[in-house]
Amino acid sequence: MVVGGGRTSISIPLNLDHIEPQQSKFSYHESGQIHVKRAGVIDGEIGRVTPPAALQVPICLGTLITKKAELYKAGRGLQRGGAAALLLRLEGGAERVRHYFEFFLSPEGTFDLPPMLLAPHVTDHHIVFTQSMSSHVILAIRHLQCGQEFSDTAPDVEIWTHLRKLATDGE
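Predicted structure:
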């Protein structure tokens, strides 16, 4: 896997089956404050980035490498707790591989997204989805389908990367 132009690897702990799953919530506030909560308590430092109303260019908030799509449990409400949902229709065996996502907040308009933060072994499949978040901010989601070999390694593990220190516009 390539990260920021250099190569890196991700190690899955051997005792993964014995580690309790954790839920966390990443927040990006109108003031530009970003933080992560685990079990309802802020974990780590509180960061600051460009407030949504002042965005000039897209900023990346985080990345997700999914587990194989076929391993997700069906039947959960996609809009529970007031959440918004993006539904992907998978075709041609795409449920048997991992998927890679990057999440950006952007002002409305036409912008090039920055280079990929993580570049796992991916196919040629590259899509950007957008969703309006307010009258001046959109969520842009870059999606790539991972290759089979990468998908077969610890296929039931997903990896979310919180970006706690982000460059503000122009940095």
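Summary: The longest strand covers residues 122-132.
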